[in-house]
Automatic annotation (TrEMBL):
Keywords: Amino-acid biosynthesis, Lysine biosynthesis, Magnesium, Metal-binding, NAD, Oxidoreductase, Phosphoprotein. Belongs to the isocitrate and isopropylmalate dehydrogenases family. One of its GO terms (cellular component) is mitochondrion. GO terms for biological process: isocitrate metabolic process; lysine biosynthetic process; tricarboxylic acid cycle. SUPFAM superfamilies: Isocitrate/Isopropylmalate dehydrogenase-like. This is homoisocitrate dehydrogenase. Its cofactor is Mg(2+). Residues 21-369 form the Isopropylmalate dehydrogenase-like domain. Pathway: Amino-acid biosynthesis; L-lysine biosynthesis via AAA pathway; L-alpha-aminoadipate from 2-oxoglutarate: step 4/5.
Length: 374
């Protein structure tokens, strides 16, 4: 049985027309500069898609915490749960030292809304750079990101810090099913479209470190394999494995061999950020936090305080994340239109931000992509 979110994402039927309410959460830093790009593409979708949008501005982030003592207001969660059809999240600052009382609002949102999967497509534009077409599916709710840590002092006066790495059969089953479903549905799209593909058959590469962490990563590996082997629908998906350090090596050496990659939270975070280097910049890589009934589009980049306020942040990751959100809401045709406009911008190689070697502003890139939608 396909999860509702994945069925919606790849549905061939268009949901009934209605006004969609989208929560906008800029967060910190350049999040405030790129979230308007997501709004702009939604507002400028051609009328033939019969989509209209309402937007609600919501707050979250480290800067909000510094002002109010709260990183994720209850109101933000309540509005998302009760009023919104989807949401966009910009960026969040992550202090490198412990700040008493603070925890990441996006991590908290994922837990509160049941967004157990972080789906990160990494795809090159045809004719530009190395060929890459993979989706990294990252477990979103546990692993070291549960943030259960402690520090204690030994008898000799030295300090020891410990962190719990939690891997559960339930969470791993959920993320494994999502990965196999995405692999199958990507193959359906390949079989029914004229778009050239790097892959002739669907595959999922399970990434782990069970040669060292035989209990925790061992459970992740065993559960992923069990879900594959005991589900008739998933037999069409080729099952593969990679130890995480070998995965990093092969991903950079031969990225074209990977179709769908599934990993625990920490490895998935590292792999997806690293994979951005294969396609030019973190500024072009989208993601969606997905659960059974909701999706939040979120660019993979951070708050980038070094370029904040300069008007040069790359809006493409946010624009692609907006399209990805639409996919998981069931509006694949409209999402495809946005992807095509972005690809045309990148292929023309004229209007691009400094991270891609250009000198265009954020707004100039937004304007160019919006013009390609019309």
């Amino acid at each position: 049985m396909l999860s509702r979110s994945v069925r919606r994402a790849f549905s061939t039927s268009t949901p009934a027309l209605k006004t969609l309410k989208i929560g906008l959460i800029p967060g910190d830093g350049i999040g405030r500069e790129v979230i308007p790009a997501g709004r702009a593409v939604l507002e400028n979708l051609p009328s033939r898609y019969d989509l209209q949008f309402e937007f609600v501005d919501l707050e979250a982030g480290f800067e909000l915490f510094q002002k109010t003592g709260t990183a994720l207001p209850d109101k933000t969660v309540e509005v998302l749960q009760k009023e919104c059809d989807g949401a966009l999240f910009g960026a969040v600052s992550s202090p490198t030292t412990k700040v008493e009382g603070y925890s990441s609002p996006i991590v908290a949102l994922r837990k509160k809304l049941g967004l157990y999967a972080n789906v990160r497509p990494v795809k090159s534009v045809e004719g530009i750079g190395r060929p890459v077409d993979m989706v990294i599916v990252r477990e979103n709710t546990e692993d070291l990101y549960i943030k259960e840590e402690r520090i204690y002092t030994k008898e000799d006066g030295t300090k020891v810090a410990e962190a719990i790495k939690r891997i559960s059969e339930t969470a791993t089953s959920n993320i494994a099913k999502m990965a196999y479903q995405i692999a199958l549905l990507r193959q359906v799209i390949r079989n029914t479209s004229d778009v050239k593909s790097l892959h002739s058959e669907p595959s999922v590469t399970v990434t782990h470190k069970s040669n060292v962490l035989s209990v925790s990563d061992g459970l992740f590996r065993e559960t992923c394999k069990k879900i594959h082997d005991t589900n008739v629908d998933f037999q069409a998906v080729q099952y593969k494995e990679q130890i995480v350090d070998s995965m990093v090596y092969k991903m950079f050496r031969d990225p074209e061999i990977f179709d769908v990659v599934v990993a625990p939270n920490l490895y998935g975070d590292i792999l997806s950020d690293g994979a951005a280097a294969l396609v030019g910049s973190l500024g072009v890589v989208p993601s969606a936090n997905v659960g059974a009934n909701f999706a939040i589009g979120e660019p993979c980049h951070g708050s980038a305080p070094d370029i904040e306020g300069k008007g040069i942040s790359n809006p493409i990751a946010t624009i692609r994340s907006t399209a990805l959100m639409l996919e998981f809401m069931g509006y694949s045709d409209a999402a495809a239109k946005i992807y095509t406009a972005v690809d045309a911008n990148l292929a023309e190689d004229k209007i691009k931000t400094p991270d891609l070697g250009g000198n265009s502003s954020t707004q100039e890139v937004i304007n160019d992509i919006v013009a390609r939608l019309l």
